[in-house]
Design goal:
This protein is an alpha+beta fold. The protein has a single domain (3-185), classed as L,D-transpeptidase catalytic domain-like, CATH 2.40.440.10. It has 5 helices and 8 strands, in the order αβββββααβαβαβ. Strand 6 (137-139), helix 4 (146-154) and strand 7 form a beta-alpha-beta unit. Helix 2 packs antiparallel against helix 3. The longest helix has 17 residues, at 3-19. The two termini are 31 Å apart.
């Protein structure tokens, strides 16, 4: 696939993802630098939560192990209730933008790029074992000790996910379903 075709494929998938944000469902907006997760319905704020994100700092996730939370438009793909983090909402990371950037930067190859795009078209989880990394989601803290709660209040401590207190992830679950858009900003 030529670089021009890849660019157009990315923009097409991006436009599709943007148009699917319309409607009466909830949207989650995450602001890493402000450590906030906003729940919106029809662009109106419904609820605000304090979060922690990746310990790798600001900027976009570019590869496995960088400990950064990705920036972009994602969707919730499934829920894992028996997570070591209390509850886990899996996002469709890497998305088309991540795959395109990874291909452009030689983090992934053409075959891996194609596999990721195919999975996104099928609305299934993209390959989580490429050098782009994976297992990105929104989760609780797990066992809530004094030390963990203090760390959560003061630090971005995750490997690239978005973390919330356990009671808050349970409350957030009432706003989220499979396909809920999650927009992550720096």
């Amino acid at each position: 696939m030529s670089s021009s075709n890849i660019r157009w494929l990315f923009f097409g998938l991006f436009l599709i993802s943007q148009t699917s944000l319309a409607g009466g469902d909830y949207t989650l907006e995450i602001y890493k630098s402000d450590r906030l997760l906003l729940v919106k319905k029809d662009h109106l704020l419904q609820k605000t939560f304090r979060i922690a994100s990746g310990s790798g700092g600001s900027g976009d996730k570019t590869h496995r192990g960088d400990k950064k939370t990705p920036i972009g438009v994602y969707k919730v793909l499934y829920f894992k209730e028996d997570s070591r983090f209390h509850y886990f909402m899996q996002l469709n990371y890497p998305n088309a933008k991540d795959a395109y950037d990874g291909l452009k930067n030689n983090t992934i190859d053409q075959y891996e790029f194609g596999q990721i795009i195919s999975a996104l078209k099928r609305k299934t989880l993209p390959d989580q074992k490429t050098d782009l990394g994976g297992a990105i989601g929104i989760h609780g803290i797990g066992e809530e000790t004094e030390d963990k709660l203090a760390l959560h209040e003061d630090e971005n401590w995750t490997q690239g996910c978005i973390a919330m207190k356990n009671k808050e992830i349970e409350e957030l679950r009432h706003f989220v379903h499979i396909g809920t858009p999650v927009i992550i900003f720096d």
